[in-house]
Design brief:
Blueprint: E1 25-29, E2 32-38, E3 44-50, E4 58-63, E5 65-66, E6 71-76, E7 84-90, E8 112-117, E9 120-124, E10 147-150, H1 152-156, H2 170-173, H3 176-185, E11 189-192, H4 202-206, H5 230-235, H6 237-253, E12 257-262, H7 279-287, H8 311-327, E13 332-335, H9 338-341, H10 354-361, E14 369-372, E15 392-394, H11 396-416, H12 424-430, E16 446-448, H13 458-461, H14 497-516, E17 520-524, H15 555-573, E18 593-598, H16 607-611, E19 617-624, E20 633-639, E21 645-648, E22 658-663, E23 675-676, E24 681-684, E25 688-694
Parallel strand pairs: 10-11, 10-17, 11-12, 12-13, 13-14, 14-15, 15-16, 16-17
Antiparallel strand pairs: 1-2, 2-6, 3-4, 3-7, 5-6, 7-9, 8-9, 18-19, 19-20, 20-25, 21-24, 22-23, 22-25
Helix pairs in contact: 8-10, 11-12, 11-14, 14-15
Length: about 700
């Protein structure tokens, strides 16, 4: 573990690392606690202390003294573990400033919070002691990483083997029943939707709804209190933090990583006129992007955007990451709307932004997985493939191409007798998206996904042509209109067995593509047994059975789970499916996969076949160039139209047999592995896949 201020920490590259910004927040010592607050434009900063039980009873106020670099400081015996406190900040009026000496503000580096009511919070001094018992991070290599993205509460809320007292809690996620599910499935890394303290927007409260997903940050250092057990919530913030750390420890003991979805791009203070809970009252001009007249520059669509062109805002993010990665021992971060973090003083994205480079270069974050959502809603906001070395990115191009190939192209072909495009673009995504990510970054830069928390679930993708979001209170205006989905002949639930069978196969095809592609796969929680949200593609505001995972499954759902389990087992067993580097023509590249492409007749694909809409069949051969594992070669057949086809296995030097491992045409994964030979014909049903290992 490397302390942010240790001699081995990152050498200064920019102002965000200057020493004046060290040790912000409360640091406990022999003389009590020292509070340091950055508020460069303030004229007065005051510490406000509260009674331990009555959060409206102010017991003392103490002014802070201005020190170097815009920092205000106080050391006092009144700051001790468990102490409730807030700050008040005064400053000049005028465009861009929002000072109010009467407003009680959350101290940005708070490790604990308690609520005194809506928009009424108190910071709490935290000791943070915890016995890790020698448990260390699993450090799963990226080529073996399989991400499972889910909601902390929703995953365990309805699990019948999790005790009711633990339903929907940190402790519930680490219950043996949940760990058994993760391990049986075969995922390696649990990516949690936001667990940093967040608040619900007043607009949602007026509609009787809540911000369930949590993309509305209140504080970057405190775990969300509502996800702790009632017993620990009663005990207070120290116990909540212990429960969170206990969850991490138990998951690590099982070999599972914890990745946090972090929302640093904006806060719950919304636009001007929204709540003033922390940064807006401390130094609005410095923390939020705005024009000279004080109007916010909103590149997030959430009302405000954190201004990481200022050193203090960037340092706040970096220090938060260091805290979670070291003190709380999490294994990685997925950065929501990461482009916002990389915008400079002119609000233009640059991959060499000081904050983005600091996140990659900081020794305190070495070995931590860094995953960017490579877009926001501002000008130049779509940046997939443009982040620097060390970053992994959600690949929306992969998502769209896979959905098109298996869903909207098939829908189009039913109406026009042929698909709109050939198989070339799909093959590029299957083999690692080399047209999006540089050779230096390789296929592991791509985090592949077909679904995520945002949008249709896998089951809804194959069951609905349009969104059904009326329950969100916005007259079905919210949520994406372009989903590349296909209901296969009926909108929503149906009793037509033919449609249901086709939907099941479509799900198997997309899961097979996801888990057999080069890159890092991300599976959305519940897709392994076809969870539905009844066509709602923006269920962020529903904390209900609509969004909680159901653990009661029909036999066909258990069959789908068995397919996902088999696919992940095959991914582990076959290194050719998970290359670290892109292969180079006529060169030996260690830990790459040398790829060959054949048509349905077993012949090398011709150039015109890649773009021919009538050609939707290929054979993909990948041969590993291993450094640590034995040589391995696979052949994957892909057939993308609804008519059956006969495929001739290719003649490949050194290959005498093809062992069948998996087929998407099977309702239940087959335990019979049939051996074929070069030149032999294999019959494929319409829209299906089949995997072989060569011998």
């Amino acid at each position: 573990m490397v302390s942010p201020d240790s001699p081995t920490a990152l050498a200064p590259r920019s102002g965000l690392l200057r020493s004046e910004l060290d040790d912000l927040g409360v640091t406990l010592g022999p003389d009590g606690g020292t509070l340091r607050v950055w508020a460069e434009n303030a004229t007065e900063v005051e510490l406000v202390l509260f009674d331990d039980t009555d959060l409206d009873w102010i017991t003392d106020t103490i002014p802070l003294s201005a020190v170097d670099g815009g920092v205000w400081s106080i050391t006092t015996a009144h700051l001790h573990a468990g102490r409730r406190y807030a700050i008040r900040v005064d400053g000049p009026s005028g465009a861009g400033n929002m000072f109010n000496p009467g407003t009680l503000l959350v101290e940005p580096y708070s490790k604990g919070l308690v609520s005194g009511g809506f928009e009424d919070w108190r910071s709490v001094v935290i000791d943070g002691g915890f016995d890790w018992g020698g448990v260390s991070k699993p450090a799963v290599p990226m080529d073996r990483t399989v991400i499972y993205e889910g909601h902390l509460k929703g995953m365990s809320k309805r699990h019948p083997l999790v005790p009711p007292a633990l339903h929907g809690t940190y402790a519930g996620l680490a219950h043996p029943a949940m760990i058994d599910h993760f391990l049986t499935l075969g995922v390696t890394s649990i990516e949690l939707l936001p667990i940093q303290a967040f608040a619900t927007e007043p607009r949602l409260l007026q509609h009787g709804l809540t911000n369930y997903w949590g993309y509305n940050s209140l504080n970057f250092f405190t775990p969300h209190g509502a996800y702790a057990t009632k017993a620990n919530r009663r005990e207070g913030p120290e116990a909540i933090l212990r429960e969170f750390k206990g969850m991490v420890k138990l998951l690590h003991e099982a070999g599972l990583e914890v990745i946090l979805d972090v929302v640093y791009n904006h806060t719950c203070e919304e636009g001007i006129g929204g709540p003033r809970t922390s940064l807006r009252g401390i130094d609005n001009r410095s923390f939020y992007r705005q024009h000279e007249d004080g109007v916010y520059i909103d590149v997030t669509g959430c009302g405000n955007s954190l201004d990481t062109a200022t050193d203090a805002a960037s340092r706040l993010v970096l220090d938060s990451l260091r805290y979670w990665a070291n003190e709380v021992q999490v294994d990685g971060f997925r950065f929501d709307l990461a482009v916002t973090l990389g915008r400079d003083a002119a609000h233009t994205f640059t991959p060499d932004h000081p904050l983005l480079r600091a996140i990659i270069d900081d020794p305190a974050l070495a070995g931590v997985k860094k995953i960017a959502e490579p877009w926001d809603v501002g000008m130049g906001g779509w940046q997939t493939g443009n982040f620097g070395d060390g970053w992994h990115e959600w690949n929306d191009r992969y998502r769209d191409r896979v959905r098109n190939f298996w869903l909207s192209d098939v829908d189009y072909a039913r109406r026009a007798s042929t698909a709109p495009v050939g198989i070339g673009g799909f093959a590029t995504r299957l083999s690692g998206s080399s047209n999006t990510f540089s050779a230096e970054r390789g296929p592991l830069a791509s985090v592949n996904f077909v679904t995520a928390h945002d949008g249709f679930t896998l089951r809804d993708l194959v069951s609905y042509d349009v969104k059904h979001n009326v329950g969100n209170g916005e007259q079905n205006r919210d949520g994406a209109d372009t989903n590349r989905s296909f209901n296969h002949g009926a909108e929503g639930p149906t009793s037509d067995e033919g449609i249901l069978a086709t939907r099941r196969k479509a799900m198997r095809n997309m899961l097979g593509t996801l888990l057999l592609s080069a890159g890092v796969p991300m599976l959305t929680a519940g897709d392994e047994f076809a969870r539905t949200q009844r066509g709602n593609n923006n269920a962020y505001c529903h904390d209900s059975p609509l969004t909680w995972m159901s653990w009661e499954h029909a036999p066909w759902q258990d069959d789908l789970f068995a397919h996902v389990r088999r696919l992940l087992e095959l991914r582990r067993q076959n290194p050719a499916l998970r290359p670290i580097r892109f292969a180079k023509l006529n060169e030996h590249t260690p830990s790459a996969s040398v790829m060959q492409w054949y048509d349905q007749n077993g012949k090398t694909m011709a150039i015109d076949q890649w773009t021919d809409p009538s050609n939707r069949t290929l054979q993909y051969v990948a041969a590993s160039t291993p450094e640590q594992e034995a040589f391995n070669r696979i052949l994957l057949m892909v057939h993308g139209n609804e008519h059956p086809v006969d495929v001739t296995l290719p003649e490949i030097e050194g290959v005498s047999t093809f062992l069948s491992l998996w087929s998407s045409a099977d309702e239940t994964p087959s335990d019979t592995h049939v051996e074929y030979h070069p030149g032999q014909v294999v019959s494929l049903t319409g829209t299906s896949m089949r995997l072989f290992r060569t011998g």
